[in-house]
Amino acid sequence: MAACMASKMAVAPSRGALARKVSVKAARRTAIRVRAFAPAYDEVFDGNTGQMEKVLSQSVESVSAGGLEWSYRVGVPEEGTEAKPTKVLMVHGAGLNSFTYNKLSRELQKMGYTTFAPDMPGHGATSKPTSGFDYSAASYQSALEAFMTAAGIADVEDPVDMVVSGFITSQAALLLAAANPGLFRRVIVMNTPLGPGHKLPDPLAVYTRPFGMGKGAQADVYKLAYFGNEFAIPEETMAKYEAPYAGGDGEAARAALEATVTKNDLKALTSAVSKAWSVRGLPKVRIVWGVNDKYLGDKDMYKWAEDVRATFDCIRSVGHMPQEDFPQEAAKFVGAYLESELKVSALGSVRLGKVTKDDDYQR
């Protein structure tokens, strides 16, 4: 049964070059020019000065794509910062929303990158359909491609870099990159299930349990985000994560999260991702991993890196959400990879050895 499910989750790369050529031609026909965005700022109280200070942030935009209304965050470098030519697509995991990349995006913007972080369907402020979208990995995969086209970043002449983290929706994004490699330049995986040893955390796994523990259960986003981390998440940040489940769309958001978990067998999904990425000719992959993750052990990560020829960075002091715990450290690793020459010797990856210290990019 799992094998059957896995086969439906991805466009099989074994059908190879022909599928990619069709995808590339379609992207050329449908890609549109990216709208010009201006730098955005948040006003934050500075306890040292007693003044409100402007802090680089992202604007919240909207677009119609694939029959859905999408909300997404766009981060633009500050004026005077030289813009990098490659844009960065950032895909969150199930139960969270695009705000999870707020801090990491800011650090990348300082380096000159323009970032796009959508609320995936059923999450954040994006549509939460009750029909026509079944919340399977295949549906998320197709929807994300439609979003990229509508947002103007599905262009084989200007492929994007992609960052993924978390559960299920992020794996759907990895399947999209494997099926349409021409749209992506490089891929970064941050604490995402990658093997059979990785399990759903209790706040998500509850939906698969019998005897009334699952269906209809309240979405505990606090536990999902907080308990996987080594460090506490500030109350004002948690409010951003919990808002979609507490507002007027709360019932629809909870139903969408339940559907996302019940429609996707995690073992079958990780198997599909591993199979899709086991072929050559795909974008290069770098794993940036918080090894204190309470949900995901690093054993499967090492095995996946070996199987798909990915390189990786390990950060000892970081838990399930590197983008939340230490965004500056995570951005250092992400930025160095995006600008690297892709030589393993230059990247300095720990190669399946015991992690005794953080990987070091001061070289």
Automatic annotation (TrEMBL):
Residues 88-331 form the AB hydrolase-1 domain. This is AB hydrolase-1 domain-containing protein. InterPro entries: AB_hydrolase_1, AB_hydrolase_fold, Carboxylesterase_BioH.
